[in-house]
Amino acid sequence: MTAVETAGLIAPHGGVLVNRLDDTLDQGGTRPRVTLSERQRADLDLIAVGAMSPLTGFMDKATYESVLTDLRLPSGLAWSVPITLAVSDAEAEEIGSAAEVELVDEAGNFVGVIEVTERFTTDPQREARLVYGTDDAAHPGVASLYAHGTTNLAGPVRVASRMPLVPAATPYLLDPAASRAAFAERGWKSVVGFQTRNPIHRAHEYITKVALETVDGLFLHPLVGATKSDDIPAGVRMRCYETLIDNYYPRERVVLGVLPAAMRYAGQREAVLHDEQRQNYGCTNFLVGRDHAGVGSYNGTYAAHRIFDDITRDELGIQPLFFEHAFWCKLTGGMATTKSSPSEEKDRVFLSGTKVREMLGRGEVPPVEFTRPEVAKVLIEAYAQ
């Protein structure tokens, strides 16, 4: 386990790209074990490869409280979402005062070890209100939080194996060290990152291309970990991304990678986390939409923009790029926002992944104002199966 050199590129968040992978790690016969949820397994994977830099493991109580109340680590470095390892009551009892605990996935496979430096309890309702803005169990992020225990283990981790991905996403798995190498090989000094959990519709294409006019390259970085059950599967989305890049982007100016993270749906707080993660991947800029990582009506419109008023550029390093809600403008015959179109409301066709999913569910072909025909074909074929 070593720090990774990042000379010539934007520094990782906190200055050092963490590496907690350890291929010499063996499963011991006497250590107690904890079974990781899908989200915890994804968090472990991201810590291991440095996507969560500067974290080297799961947070202790002081770090947890600092992040909850101040949006910062105890060092003062910006951080917005608690990364904790909650265990069940039965696991907590079995662990006792053990100094090391084995980590296994839901199938029982050994994946790593945590060196336990602290045990602490949390109040899930309080955490939900502070992180998600609600304690409503109907919120998918809150429901996931409530499904975990209230006893947490803190400490550095060592990781023996990576989290498996769907086959279509595996070729695009670029760890932060690999994405940085890819950018350096292309001679890119400025890179804009774009996060999505949906196929890219016309509004997404528009804002990424506007951003691409100002930087050397685009890092298209969809999330392929756990999402809501009604989200389009990762394998289908990967075919959509490939199709769109091949037909509508300058191929030499786009790198397609995947983020093996689970969605938290934490709105504006998750927007900051995604921003910090893309800095670790080597991006100098990150696109933030009006309702980034939001769900339902729990987060106010543009809350994902306003949260950055409380975090300075010096604290982040990476520069977020904020975009208005883009729409198809009937008046001008193209994509636009209120900043670039004089149209009235009646001439604006607003697009969203939700609308596309609803149309596909009804067997309808999304119009060209929503998505490119080549992408629509991929989606229709997938929904017909």
Set out the fold topology.
Elements: E1 33-35, H1 38-49, E2 57-58, H2 61-70, E3 85-87, H3 89-95, E4 100-104, E5 110-115, E6 118-121, H4 124-132, H5 140-147, E7 151-159, H6 176-186, E8 191-194, H7 202-212, E9 217-220, H8 234-248, E10 254-256, H9 267-280, E11 285-288, H10 303-306, H11 313-316, E12 319-322, E13 327-329, E14 334-336, E15 348-350, H12 353-361, H13 373-384
Parallel strand pairs: 1-4, 8-9, 8-11, 9-10, 11-12
Antiparallel strand pairs: 2-7, 3-7, 4-5, 5-7, 6-7, 13-14, 13-15
Helix pairs in contact: 4-5, 8-13
Describe this structure in words.
33% of the residues lie in helices and 16% in strands. The chain is globular and about 70 Å long. The longest helix has 15 residues, at 234-248. The protein is of the alpha/beta class and 385 residues long. It has helices spanning 38-49, 61-70, 89-95, 124-132, 140-147, 176-186, 202-212, 234-248, 267-280, 303-306, 313-316, 353-361, 373-384; strands spanning 33-35, 57-58, 85-87, 100-104, 110-115, 118-121, 151-159, 191-194, 217-220, 254-256, 285-288, 319-322, 327-329, 334-336, 348-350. α8 runs antiparallel to α13 (373-384).
